[in-house]
């Protein structure tokens, strides 16, 4: 791992692969980061999240518990993952929720997928291998392998071929 910047917090329970690069103001705890991955500035990766090898996680991104990102994925600036289908501050008794009061819904980003800046990925979806999520999209359903989606909510777009 490259030297951790002074203002980053990397908990002792984080598993870092060889050659991981971490920039400033990063908060990592209880997660696993694969070798050769680059973590940009102002990124938080929570307990139980798994990031594959040779990924690029751009600045201001939030990766919560329950998210698995496979190898060679691109995550743009300011991407937000959500792991709770029914978020609330308090339980039925009016007390702050604890881990017993909600269910973490897993999300998976398959190999070589790319997610554009500002996208929001709701819980329980799978983004298929090689898929592309457009900037600012809100992904509410699974994205097929190789597909391009954009919009709010994200919809399939025609894939243009390069000649």
Written description of the protein model:
The chain is mainly β and 163 residues long. It is 0% helix and 28% strand. Strands 3-6-9-12-15-18-20-21 form an eight-stranded mixed sheet, with no helix packed on it. The protein is globular and about 55 Å long. The relative contact order is 0.11. The model has no long low-confidence stretch (mean pLDDT 94).
The 3D shape can be described as globular
Beta-strand proportion: 25-35%
Helix content: under 10%
| Count of runs of 4 or more consecutive helical residues | 0
- Quote the average pLDDT: 94
Whole-angstrom Rg: 16 Å
* End-to-end distance: 40 Å
Oligomer: single chain
How many β-strands, per DSSP? 21
Class derived from helix and strand content: mainly beta
Strand order of the largest sheet: 3-6-9-12-15-18-20-21
Write down the secondary-structure element order. Answer: EEEEEEEEEEEEEEEEEEEEE
Uncertain parts: none
Q: What profile does the largest beta sheet have?
A: 8 strands, mixed
Please outline the helices and strands.
Blueprint: E1 9-10, E2 15-16, E3 21-22, E4 27-28, E5 32-33, E6 38-39, E7 44-45, E8 50-51, E9 56-57, E10 62-63, E11 67-69, E12 74-75, E13 80-81, E14 107-109, E15 114-115, E16 120-121, E17 126-127, E18 132-133, E19 138-139, E20 148-150, E21 155-157
Parallel strand pairs: 1-4, 2-5, 3-6, 4-7, 5-8, 6-9, 7-10, 8-11, 9-12, 11-14, 12-15, 13-16, 14-17, 15-18, 16-19, 18-20
Antiparallel strand pairs: 20-21
């Amino acid at each position: 791992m490259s030297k951790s910047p002074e203002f980053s917090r990397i908990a002792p329970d984080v598993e870092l692969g060889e050659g991981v690069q971490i920039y400033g103001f990063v908060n990592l705890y209880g997660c696993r980061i694969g070798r050769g991955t680059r973590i940009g500035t102002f990124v938080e990766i929570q307990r139980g999240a798994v990031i594959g090898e040779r990924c690029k996680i751009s600045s201001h991104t939030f990766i919560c518990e329950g998210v698995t990102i496979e190898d060679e994925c691109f995550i743009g600036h300011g991407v937000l993952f959500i792991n709770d289908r029914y978020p609330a501050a308090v339980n039925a008794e009016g007390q702050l929720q604890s881990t017993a009061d909600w269910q973490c819904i897993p999300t998976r980003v398959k190999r070589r997928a790319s997610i554009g800046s500002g996208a929001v990925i709701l819980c329980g979806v799978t983004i298929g291998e090689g898929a592309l999520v457009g900037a600012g999209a809100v992904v509410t359903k699974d994205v097929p392998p190789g597909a391009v989606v954009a919009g709010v909510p994200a919809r399939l777009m025609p894939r243009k071929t390069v000649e």
